[in-house]
Amino acid sequence: MTDLSKIRNFSIVAHIDHGKSTLADRLIQETGTVKDRDMKAQLLDAMDIERERGITIKANTVRIDYKADDGQDYVLNLIDTPGHVDFAYEVSRSMRAVEGSLLVVDSTQGVEAQTLANVYQAIDADHEIVPVLNKIDLPASDCDRVAEQIEDVIGIDATGALQVSAKTGQGIRETLEAIVTQLPPPKGERDAPLKAMLVDSWYDSYLGVIVLVRIIDGVLKKGDRIRMMSNNSVHPVERIGVFRPQMEMIDELGPGEIGFLTASIKQVRDTRVGDTITTEKKGCEAALPGFKPSQPVVFCGLFPVDNAEFEDLRDAISKLSLNDASFSSEMETSAALGFGFRCGFLGLLHLEVIRDRLEREYDIDLITTAPSVIYQIYMRDGTVQELHNPADMPDLTFVDHIEEPRIKATILVPDEYLGDVLKLCQDRRGMQIDLTYAGSRAMVVYDLPLNEVVFDFYDRLKSVTKGYASFDYQMIGYREDHLVKMQVLVNDEPVDALSTMVHRDRAETRGRAMVEKLKDLIPRHMFKIPIQAAIGGKVIARETLSAMRKDVTAKCYGGDVSRKKKLLDKQKAGKKKMRQFGKVDIPQEAFISALKMDG
């Protein structure tokens, strides 16, 4: 049993690449939690993709024992969180399980967009925040300027900010002391009925569902029968343990502690993140407020290249969704691509990560259709429909108007690239909300349509600012705009996989680019093929793929011209008939390349 005043629960928050996971490594190493021979870089990033891309995707937790300078023994529960905007949901969950945060800022780069987003989540959760300036071993480090920036932009007192180098280990001992002295201990009643918050859950093929919990009140013991308050299901607790980062079994978890339990739960669906866990008998009265469920923002179709792999894809998707609550999927069929799934993601990086995991962990070759967002369609009869796939657009005669999702984007950019960034946002139909300065960097706030950001906004932003801009966004709701469905016709047949929603003013340029690209991608046939982009019945762009033709007049040596003309007319009639009944084969590569438009 651990004394409440000797427990500290905290998370590490920062922008991407500011050194959260490396700092977590040093804290684990300094306290001897893991032996030096077992130590490796980014110890808490367990997935291959995390290690390869150098990013954290899942928030991970570890329990550290620390003997402070005052001779007391403390238990520190650390949660390492992702920095990327697509995984902000993981961050918000972790925040609710702890009382304080280490705010890590790179002392060479300063405050970035994601730093702001994550620190605001910590402030919302009433956290005590300790600023940490990292990377002081680099020659470009400027602690005074960055401390001033933290005070100006975020409004936190940074006079006593810790100066550390997570790489060399300088300042790590001071960080541990600051955690013990500056962060508050958790509150909780040991004698009260059990009240625990379900922070995360994932599937393990040996133990079933593993549930990460934070005990608020009461004690959780092995053999207890627990009840999930959202669905009233009851489970007997088999194992209780903590992560050091390896699993270590213990007999009980008291108030303020973070650990895991297994209770022969078969499906992750039964363990809703943010749920309250209590005992079956004499449970607590009221549930905890929980978290807002994550809302998918970007949708796209995933289809196997080989249709015979559809069942494998179905299995793979159901296993992945066990471990990732924010990923949703439903079946769909497409005339061009066969059977597949329509999947929802929190953003484009999330989409890439899921696609990589499916291809790598389950060995399936995938085709990904154009990402789209959810539109709200207001019908003339007063009903509202959600449109996930542009191919399902209802007849326009019944539609009153269409609304699209808008986001509030915060971009931090050095002064010299400001003009390019403003132009990029204007080109994407953005409306400027605010422009302020933090030192030599401009902070631009724009209201942008999500559909324009989904494609390649982030890549374009990085290229016009030579990689110096940082970007963060949040959803702000829906607004009406003049949107139309643009479809592509090949040989007068619509290709549903290439349908997209576009703004009316942009439709022509988008359509022209699409048909020009397809003209290069579709192989030539024996007859000529028209490739058209159309809105409703109106064609807005067209290219014609010329036919391969045989020289039928080769055998005529001289002679009357009418003989040649007769042969050519015969060929022309044959081509016309062929075009009527001929089928155009569009290769898979053409779909993939056409969907990577927008360059």
CATH-scheme architecture of the largest domain = 3-Layer(aba) Sandwich
Largest pleated sheet? 8 strands, antiparallel
Strand line-up of the largest beta sheet: 11-10-16-7-8-15-12-13
Strand content: 25-35%
Average pLDDT metric: 78
Tally of structural domains: 5
Number of strands: 32
CATH class of the largest domain: Alpha Beta
What is the CA–CA distance across the termini? 60 Å
Membrane topology: Peripheral membrane protein
Catalytic activity: GTP + H2O = GDP + phosphate + H(+)
Subcellular location: Cell membrane
Keywords: Cell membrane, Elongation factor, GTP-binding, Hydrolase, Membrane, Nucleotide-binding, Protein biosynthesis
Please outline the helices and strands:
Blueprint: E1 7-14, H1 20-30, H2 48-53, E2 60-67, E3 73-80, H3 88-96, E4 100-106, H4 113-124, E5 128-134, H5 143-154, E6 162-163, H6 172-182, E7 195-204, E8 208-217, E9 220-221, E10 225-228, E11 234-236, E12 239-244, E13 246-250, E14 252-253, E15 258-262, E16 276-279, E17 298-304, H7 310-323, E18 328-334, E19 338-345, H8 348-361, E20 366-368, E21 372-373, E22 375-379, E23 384-387, E24 399-414, H9 418-427, E25 431-438, E26 441-449, H10 450-454, H11 457-464, E27 470-480, E28 483-490, E29 493-494, E30 500-503, H12 507-521, E31 529-535, E32 538-545, H13 561-581, H14 588-595
Helix pairs in contact: 1-6, 3-4, 12-14
